[in-house]
């Protein structure tokens, strides 16, 4: 869903937010362009995945698999950032993406863009992995796919409970990995999961 943006309204909202907290963006020099910077950070970076089209991105970023190729593809330690929709605070960490090719092989950059495209939205961590794994099955035609996301949520670290070493891990599976069998056994052994 393409979202309509009103950047001037967003800037006014940031200025009002600061005023509501007792700061005056017009009187305090360090806040003079804060609303512009905040809106730019959100629109150009933190929410840049909102309008990504999985199907076209994976089609452009993939090529046919060679006949008889077997095995799995694993990308580890893909750094990523998302924003908690509950507190509008970032969560920072890594993703591991695994898939079992069938007809097409995705370029490594396409998989990295897929992760970032789904992370750079106002979305729960559990949804990121689910959407990535399903996109690889639905739009790349992978037999099975898995996405593990491991994040440090600043809403858990910097406020509230202040659990500084807390890391949240989620694992999503799709396609043949959802059923018992050799594909699932191979994937779970590769990631050292039960």
What does this structure look like?
- This protein has about 190 residues and is α+β, with helices and mostly antiparallel strands.
- About 40% of the residues lie in helices and about 25% in strands.
- The protein has 2 domains: about 40 residues, no CATH class; about 140 residues, GTP cyclohydrolase I, C-terminal domain/NADPH-dependent 7-cyano-7-deazaguanine reductase, N-terminal domain (GTP Cyclohydrolase I, domain 2, 2-Layer Sandwich).
- The strands form 2 sheets. Strands 2-3-5-6 form a 4-stranded antiparallel beta sheet, with helices on both faces. Strands 1-4 form a two-stranded antiparallel sheet.
- A hairpin with a 6-residue loop joins strand 2 and strand 3.
- It is elongated.
- The model has no long low-confidence stretch (mean pLDDT about 90).
């Amino acid at each position: 869903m393409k979202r309509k943006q009103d950047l001037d309204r967003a800037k006014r909202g940031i200025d009002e937010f600061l005023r509501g907290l007792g700061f005056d963006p017009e009187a305090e020099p360090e806040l003079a362009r804060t609303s512009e910077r905040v809106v730019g950070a959100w629109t150009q970076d933190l929410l840049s995945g909102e309008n990504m089209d999985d199907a076209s991105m994976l089609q452009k970023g993939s090529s046919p698999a060679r006949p008889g190729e077997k095995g799995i593809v694993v990308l580890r330690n893909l750094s990523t950032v998302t924003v908690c929709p509950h507190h509008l605070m970032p969560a920072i960490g890594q993703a591991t993406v695994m898939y079992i090719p069938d007809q097409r092989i995705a370029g490594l950059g396409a998989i990295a863009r897929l992760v970032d495209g789904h992370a750079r939205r106002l979305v729960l961590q559990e949804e990121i992995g689910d959407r990535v794994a399903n996109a690889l099955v639905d739009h790349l035609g992978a037999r099975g796919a898995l996405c593990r996301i491991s994040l440090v949520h600043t809403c858990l670290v910097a406020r509230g409970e202040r659990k500084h070493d807390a890391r949240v891990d989620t694992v999503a599976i799709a396609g043949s990995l959802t059923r018992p069998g050799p594909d699932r056994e191979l994937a779970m052994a590769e990631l050292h999961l039960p």
